[in-house]
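Troubleshooting log. The previous run stalled partway through. Resubmitting the same two chains, unchanged.
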Amino acid sequence: MGVLVDENTRVLVQGMTGREGQFHSQQMLAYGTQLVAGVTPGKGGTTLFDVPVFDTVRQAVRATGANAGVIFVPPRNAPDAILEEVDAGLNVVVCITDGIPVADMVRVADYVRHTPTVLIGPNCPGLLAPGVCKMGIMPGNTAAPGPVGVLSRSGTLTYEIVADLTRAGLGQTTCIGIGGDPIPGSTFADLLPLYEADPNTKAVVLVGEIGGSDEEAAAEYIREMTKPVVAFISGRSAPPGKRMGHAGAIISGRTGTPQAKVDALLHAGAKVADTTQEIPRLVAEALRRC
Amino acid sequence: MKIHEYQAKEILARYGVPVPGGEVASTADEAGAAAERLGGRVVVKAQVHVGGRGKAGGIKLANTPQEARAVAAEILGRPLKGLVVHRVLVEPALDIRSEYYLGIVLDRAARRNALMVSAVGGVDIEEVAEATPEKIAKAWVEPALGLCDFQVRGLVRDAGLDPAALKHAESFLRALYECYVAVDATLAEINPLVVTADGSVVAADAKINIDDNALFRHPEFEAMKESTEDDPLEAEAHRRGIQYVHLGGEIGIIGNGAGLVMATLDEVKRHGGTPSNFLDIGGGAKADVVASALELVLMDPQVKGLLLNVFGGITRCDEVAKGVLEAAQRVKIQVPVVVRLTGTNEAEGRALLAGSPLIPAETMQEAAAKIVRLAGGR
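Second attempt completed without errors. Output:
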């Protein structure tokens, strides 16, 4: 068991009949996820992979008791798809879609924060609770159940780190990729308290990268956490070539550099790994101490 | 996406923002003729996607059409901060009484748009923010409400603008916000907003950045797309639609996902190699994208080895393998290539590559160590 999902999580997929939606729905089913419904307007009444397809999210919820959703619909329809799932009262919504206009996400993410629904993404790999449930596109075969929570801004780098942890015998409670968009539905600081409260999570791995100030905000909370946090920041050797728009830097000040993030995390009491390879050792040490 | 000053001013004018009303010229003669029509005394401004044009010599005052012709000849066709100037904007020179700053920007940390107004205009606003942050008045727009009138009234007063300019500044700010929303901007600035000696108010310079993700609903910006890269390899990447940054080292790097590619660069550097580039094939890349990426990296004669690091999620390893094989048919690969494929459909991917001269690796660290050694590093 992990955060956000458990054995009672019943998943619906919006955009299941599309190309990516089909492929990853099959993968989710193969992983053992209770994928109970698909939603594609106009395809209601059909089935795909023996899963019933509905025209609307509310129909799917009424018929199947779905309480979580994954979204694989194109950028212009994705904001509405998120709002439809929130309206239907789903607990967790994972939006995989990359390319949603930021103005739409400012509005949608702000609205979702005033509801009980937790939004992960967009432009994210989703979440994976090893042995329990997979919502999204993370490869399941490299993860294993265990005591480590994994929280990341990256997609593929997360898989890399999860695989390293698993090889070292350190399984995971829930791995969450929050996504790379400027306005994510949930930030590190939003999700860390869930791991802190989860009895099965004994340590948290936080995978950040250069840009933005989410890691600095996370450090503020890490200071108060009782559980150990091991962090990694990618892009430490990258030259500061590509910059954000110049007024953007006014408000965020000097944040965004790898050193600012590493310093903030170290200051908050987190261990910071220099390479991904070091992460399992640092986690194992942290677990031995608690 | 960045657009030029003259394009930003055309857009602002549509939202009722007064602009100096200049002309765009691409030759010195055109600039001279424009100055003639504009009454003689003009500013000639380089239209390139870089900041700090004035300091770099890209903005010049001319008192006569002859002078305008001469300064345009100096500016046109030459690089300004690495980018060649193809066009200049010729505008009537303003008799400046005071200069202000108005800006709207997406504030990632606050998760909403921020408005900024300052009585210190016409200078680098980042320097103002650094040295005297109290001179910038700020307000954030509630996503559900939009910009409220009280915020507009408060900002121009908190910024300490000349009381005579308050009404103008308020209407400029409302228009700027309306424009920002309508064009899906992530940044819109008027710097400076100029109050002239005769009391009129104009946007003397303007900057608008547009959200790339929103371009699908703005076909009108399609024609404004322009390569902003001075590096020939980056320009080629732009043409191919590939996320590529040229770094100048010897190890070509291709991966999927920005985080993983950055970590791969860090790893190559840690093993004593120098990364030639950053290249992210993105999520769900198909074989042709992979082949195109490989071709691109190998165009760099400095590249002595190539590392392909793919951890499949939405990207399938068999598609990547197909792309590598496709590229090997199209271009002669003369440097060692280390391939690390794992994740979705990895068995299929590895099977496709078996028997090829590509060197397999199990982990990112092993792959980095191998390519640095094979490329003749340490």
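Takeaways: Chain A touches chain B through 65 residues (CB under 8 Å). Residues 241-253 of chain A have pLDDT under 50 and may be disordered.
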